[in-house]
């Protein structure tokens, strides 16, 4: 949700900012802009739409850009004010000497704007960000000190911000400040960076300082100073970032989504690594600080998450209840926050998030912490805000996920839930030891079984081709694969814009069956030998009787369904309880190939952004 990069140093400033924004573009693509310090001036360039437009604009204006020595850049996902050129960042003040880029939402911007208008400020945009530009400029006119002006200004802001400021009269100084929105300072030699997320800078340095709320960074090419909002200097640790630049290349795949789908076997091996290596040994989750005593005192587990992570949570509920016999509730983070009585000190609250920055989930987690619940975070970003709030942590190690549609982070979250449910079962001794061994053995086989799926994409491509012209789909299942139905439908919706709904198969006859005819395909996920198979099959027969086209996603040992279904997609044989870690893969691919046939922008679907840092 918007991306920021700032740079002061020896390299070509435009290239560094552009590269940084390219690596952040998955966070928003409504508009893009840069402010450059060049020839003693602040020069601002902005364009509407994707970053390529900014590249073209900079190319067009290359004769007027000489030797910039520092700069700030931004890509926007519109919140306040439509996606328009005037609302694009950087924003500036009346005199044009100051440039500012901002992620987040300023809640009191209307009041501040009115005050500033009374003081003579002229606003050009509808954004909350422009308020910060005028505010800092106004403070600077009084203090004549940019650092102090930023400090005084942020004290007046309510809401969330990560801001970068530069001023014509303060050469090559970039000031960053944050509250409830991520920001880091990356350290190089004769160069320093500010960014809203690691991909922006990972190609240049792996050393970084994460800013905490209410901290301000004053950055030049040779110095970094971090203070609180009173100006007291704070000593911060320099951390070594865990990511490799290779994660940011498509490595020959047409899209990041396809590459990330193919990474899933290795991602799962990574998640299992060090946690489950021997079927006779217990699962090891070093950063989960919940012992037998705590588990005994728990009266329930509450899992909160959004979107795809919410679907992983639904499978997680099923697993923890099934393996460890603990009651689990799952709720969308944005709804959890209105529930007054559901959490207390005897509730374990599990937050699930790929990015670890989702505002809805962070708010919900803070609420749970205020009720003294133990908070366990399952995230792909152990360096995130959410991870910093955790009492216990499961880092899912999927690597940077660039495609806006989550794929590998979902399977990594699922595998983490298998490990957690087994871990709880081992502490509580709730599973038969032979079953436990069988489960672990099968879990270890999953990566190579996904490789089998990925080795033959022809049936999925054919299915995609046959069904790409349909406007509506229903995905059905029961039990643990209901989560897969929801997730498969979400994937199709978000990248192809086709209306797809995940539904409990048994609920079809209670309403949605009324919609069924030959124009509404039904995709059913059913695994032979499982406890739901026969009933899902009956529900499919009901759909067939209403002329719906039927697609089955089943396993290779299911031999007698070809006569009922129009198309049958298969995964290798697997116990039903473990199947969600595999059934999601053909559905990711189906969504991918349908979107491809329809010519959609797979990696950057319209209206979406990767991490949603507004509520
Ligand atoms: C779907 C997708 C979103 C996210 C949701 C939560 O493909 O990516 O639905 O799952 O915005 O994001 P995280 O997991 O980062 O909290």
Name the average pLDDT. 94
Rg value: 26 Å
The level of helicity is: 25-40%
Beta-strand share of residues: 15-25%
> With helices defined by DSSP (H or I, 4 residues minimum), what is the helix count?
18
Q: Architecture of the largest domain, according to CATH? A: 4-Layer Sandwich
| Main sheet summary | 8 strands, antiparallel
Work out the count of structural domains: 3
Give me the CATH superfamily of the largest domain.
Aminohydrolase, N-terminal nucleophile (Ntn) domain
Class inferred from helices and paired strands = alpha/beta
Summary, kept brief:
The protein is α/β, with parallel strands linked by helices.
Write up this protein.
This protein is an alpha/beta fold and 615 residues long. The chain folds into 3 domains: 3-247, Glutamine Phosphoribosylpyrophosphate, subunit 1, domain 1, CATH 3.60.20.10; 250-452, Glucose-6-phosphate isomerase like protein, domain 1 (Rossmann fold, 3-Layer(aba) Sandwich), CATH 3.40.50.10490; 456-615, Glucose-6-phosphate isomerase like protein, domain 1 (Rossmann fold). It is 35% helix and 22% strand. The chain contains 18 helices and 24 strands. The protein has an 8-stranded antiparallel sheet, with helices on one face. The chain has a 6-stranded antiparallel sheet with strand order 5-6-7-8-12-13, with helices on one face. The protein is globular and about 80 Å long. The mean pLDDT is 94. The structure holds fructose -6-phosphate. Fructose -6-phosphate (F6R) binds next to helix 9 and helix 16.
């Amino acid at each position: 949700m918007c991306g920021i990069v700032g740079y002061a140093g020896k390299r070509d400033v435009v290239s560094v900012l552009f590269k940084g924004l390219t690596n952040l573009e998955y966070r928003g693509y409504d508009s893009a802009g840069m402010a450059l310090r060049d020839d003693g001036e602040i020069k601002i360039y902005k364009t509407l739409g994707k970053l390529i437009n900014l590249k073209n604009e900079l190319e067009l204006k290359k004769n007027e850009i000489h030797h910039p020595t520092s700069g700030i850049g931004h890509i926007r996902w519109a919140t306040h004010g439509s996606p328009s050129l005037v609302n694009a960042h950087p924003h500036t003040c009346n005199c044009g000497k100051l440039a500012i880029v901002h992620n987040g939402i300023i809640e009191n911007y209307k009041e501040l704007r009115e005050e500033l208008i009374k003081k003579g400020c002229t606003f050009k945009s509808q954004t909350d960000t422009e308020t910060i530009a005028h505010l800092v400029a106004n403070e600077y006119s009084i203090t004549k000190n940019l650092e102090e002006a930023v400090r005084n200004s942020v004290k007046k802001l309510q809401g969330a911000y990560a801001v970068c400021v530069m001023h014509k009269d303060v050469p090559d100084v970039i000031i960053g400040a944050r509250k409830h929105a991520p920001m880091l300072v990356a350290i190089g030699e004769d160069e320093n960076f500010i960014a809203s997320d690691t991909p922006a800078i990972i190609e240049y340095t792996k050393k970084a300082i994460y800013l905490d709320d209410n901290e301000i960074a004053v950055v030049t090419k040779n110095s970094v100073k971090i203070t609180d909002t009173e100006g007291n200097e704070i000593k911060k640790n320099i951390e070594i970032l865990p990511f490799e630049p290779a994660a940011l290349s498509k490595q020959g795949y047409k899209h990041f989504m396809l590459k990330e789908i193919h990474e899933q076997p290795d991602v799962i091996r990574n998640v299992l690594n060090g946690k489950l290596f021997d079927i006779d040994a217990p699962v090891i989750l070093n950063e989960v600080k919940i012992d037998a005593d705590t588990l005994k005192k728990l009266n329930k587990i509450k899992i909160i998450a959004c979107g795809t992570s919410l679907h992983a949570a639904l499978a997680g509920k099923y697993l923890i209840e099934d393996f460890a016999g603990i009651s689990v509730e799952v709720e969308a983070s944005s709804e959890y926050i209105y529930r007054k009585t559901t959490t207390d000190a005897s509730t374990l609250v599990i937050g699930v998030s790929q990015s670890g920055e989702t505002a809805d989930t962070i708010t919900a987690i803070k609420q749970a912490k205020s009720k003294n619940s133990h908070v366990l975070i399952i995230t792909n970003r152990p360096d995130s805000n959410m991870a910093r709030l955790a009492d216990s942590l499961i880092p899912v190690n999927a690597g940077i996920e660039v495609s806006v549609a989550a794929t590998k982070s979902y399977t990594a979250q699922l595998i983490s839930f298998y490990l957690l449910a087994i871990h709880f079962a081992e502490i509580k001794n709730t599973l038969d030891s032979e079953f436990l061994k069988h489960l672990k053995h099968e879990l270890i086989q999953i990566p190579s079984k996904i490789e089998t799926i990925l080795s033959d994409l022809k049936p999925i491509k054919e299915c995609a081709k046959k069904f790409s012209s349909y406007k509506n789909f229903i995905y059905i299942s029961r039990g643990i694969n209901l989560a897969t139905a929801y997730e498969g439908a979400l994937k199709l919706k978000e990248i192809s814009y086709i209306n797809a709904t995940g539904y409990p198969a048994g609920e079809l006859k209670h309403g949605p069956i009324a919609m069924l005819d030959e124009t509404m395909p039904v995709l059913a996920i059913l695994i032979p030998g499982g406890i739901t198979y026969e009933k899902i099959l009956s529900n499919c027969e009901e759909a067939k009787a209403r002329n719906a086209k039927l697609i089955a996603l089943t396993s290779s040992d299911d031999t007698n369904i070809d006569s009922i279904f129009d198309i049958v997609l298969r995964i290798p044989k697997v116990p039903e309880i473990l199947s969600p870690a595999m059934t999601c893969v053909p559905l990711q691919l189906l969504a991918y190939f349908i979107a491809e046939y329809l010519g959609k922008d797979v990696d950057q679907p319209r209206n979406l952004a990767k991490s949603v840092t507004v509520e």
